[in-house]
Each structure stands twice: as structure tokens, then as C-alpha cells.
Specification:
Strand order of the largest sheet: 6-7-8-3-9-10
Number of helices: 11
Helix content: 25-40%
Structural class: alpha/beta
Strand content: 15-25%
Shape: globular
Order of helices and strands: EEEHEEHEHHHHEHEHEEHHH
Largest sheet: 6 strands, mixed
Number of strands: 10
Length: 274
């Protein structure tokens, strides 16, 4: 199904346009001919189980890995593959990523305030940064006390707010969220998702949600693609795909969400037959 394509929402042109994206590691194909588009301010979910290729797709979009083949354009311009510092910084101002575990990516010696200041200094040397740091802390709803703590003195939800603020610091066009709420308690997940919804409304930033959680997809995305074995097997408006899935694999993913009449044995049997 290499011709699957999600058109940009409404009449807006595509901000991110991915065509035939493929990534091979030796004889293994992790991402196989993936194609989709997202308009500015849109929110796309990329769903699949472990090994489906969704995280590798995210790494290709952010520039952490280079594709074997295919094209990736932002605002109609090819995403640069050059590795110099200037090019890396320019790419970072287009796309930022928030990972599942912010503790692994935050400097344990730096407070949230210092983390944001360091990020801004890297991208905008010589600029006045205090005002922008305060704006970012307010945007993710961190108090002054939280802003001066060290990462290990913060809760998981607070650390993820810091990671989101750091990603937003350079005003990226696209924010990739790779299982960004998967490690949080359900109540904290809801707080972070509400926060992200508000930020999207205020800034028109475009979201790519990489997740296995269909509840997250339902609450925060406009469109969704379902990946399996590196390929897109289903796509469309989120509400339509989740209400009326066309593939047995998507139905298995939906049935795997615990709820009334949940049947783990039946799900396991269906997986073996699919």
C-alpha cells in the first residue's frame, strides 16, 4: 500500500510532505515506502506496536537518522542532510522532538531555567533571553520554584514540561512527540495532553504523535496512520479510523485496549492468525 497519502487538512498546503521514505539497516527494512502529508497546525498520529517502524520514521523526520531513499520536504524545501553546525541548528529550528523519558535528555546539573537559557544561547547568541525563558516557563505552567530545581527534584510530569519547553524554545514548525506521555500516570497524561492542545491552539505548531496508545491518538490528533512491519497499512481521519477500521491489524490494536468485555486470549489468538 505504498500509495497511501493523507492530504493536508482543509485547503492549506502541506507543511511536512513525506514521500516514499525508506530506511534499511543492512538486510532489514525498518521503514518501507512511507508517504504522508501534514498541514501547518495539524496533528498526525503515527501508531503501531514495537517494531512497526514508527520511531525510526520519527528519527528520519527529525534528522537523527538519514533515509536510504525517499524525500522529505518542509514548506516545499528538501530537508537538508548536511552535517555542519549551521545546518544542524537550522534543522533543529524546523523540527524538535520530545522523548518518552526526559530524565535521559536533561542535564542533571541544570535547572529548567538554565536549560532553557542554554538552548536559547546556542541558537541565538548575544540575544536577551530572560523574557523568552519566562514566557516558556509560563507556557508549560512551571512555577518559579520548579524553574530553579534540578531534574531529579521534579516529578515525571514536571520534567516532561521542561522537555516540551526546551523543544518549543526555538519556535519549531514541527514538534515530534515520541511516546511523550507513555511513562506518566493517567491523570498526569491528561494534564500534559491538555497543555499540548492549548499550545497548539496558541502557536499553530504542527504535531507528530508517535504512540502505541490509541487513547492518546483519539484525544490529540486530527489524522492517523497505522504502521506494521515498516509500512503504512491504514490512514485517514482519526475519528473515522478508530470508529471504522479497514484492516484486521487496526481492529486488533483497538481490541487490545483494556475495557468492558476485554478478551486477552481472543486478542492473542487473533494476532497469531493475522
Amino acid at each position: 500500500m505504498s500509495d497511501i497519502r493523507i492530504p493536508p487538512t482543509g485547503a492549506d498546503p502541506a507543511l511536512l510532505d513525506v514521500r516514499g521514505l525508506t530506511k534499511r539497516f543492512g538486510d532489514f527494512t525498518a521503514v518501507d515506502d512511507v508517504t504522508f502529508s501534514v498541514s501547518a497546525g495539524g496533528s498526525l498520529g503515527i501508531v503501531g506496536e514495537s517494531g512497526s517502524g514508527k520511531t525510526t520514521t520519527a528519527r528520519l523526520i527529525t534528522g537523527l537518522d538519514s533515509p536510504t531513499s525517499g524525500t522529505l520536504t518542509i514548506d516545499g524545501r528538501p530537508r537538508s542532510a548536511q552535517r555542519g553546525k549551521t545546518q544542524r541548528l537550522a534543522r533543529a529550528r524546523q523540527v524538535q522532538i520530545v522523548f518518552q523519558d526526559p530524565l535521559q535528555s536533561l542535564d542533571p546539573r541544570l535547572s529548567p531555567r538554565d536549560t532553557l537559557d542554554e538552548t536559547l544561547r546556542l541558537h541565538f547568541p548575544g540575544s536577551r533571553r530572560d523574557t523568552r525563558v519566562r514566557e516558556l516557563l509560563d507556557q508549560v505552567q512551571l512555577s518559579s520554584r520548579d524553574a530553579d530545581a534540578r531534574p531529579r527534584g521534579l516529578s515525571g510530569g514536571q520534567r516532561q514540561r521542561v522537555a516540551i519547553a526546551r523543544a518549543l524554545a526555538v519556535r519549531p514548525r514541527i514538534l515530534v512527540l515520541d511516546e511523550a506521555v507513555a511513562a506518566l500516570d493517567v491523570s498526569v497524561q491528561a494534564q500534559i495532553l491538555n497543555l499540548l492542545a492549548g499550545i497548539r491552539e496558541q502557536t499553530r505548531v504542527t504535531y507528530l504523535f508517535i504512540t502505541h496508545d490509541l487513547g492518546v491518538v483519539r484525544s490529540i490528533t486530527d489524522d492517523v496512520i497505522v504502521m506494521r512491519h515498516g509500512r503504512v497499512i491504514e490512514s485517514g481521519a482519526t475519528a473515522t479510523v478508530l470508529a471504522r477500521p479497514n484492516t484486521s491489524y487496526t481492529r486488533i490494536l483497538l481490541d487490545s485496549v483494556p475495557g468492558p468485555n476485554w478478551d486477552p486470549r481472543g486478542i492473542a489468538a487473533a494476532r497469531e492468525q493475522d
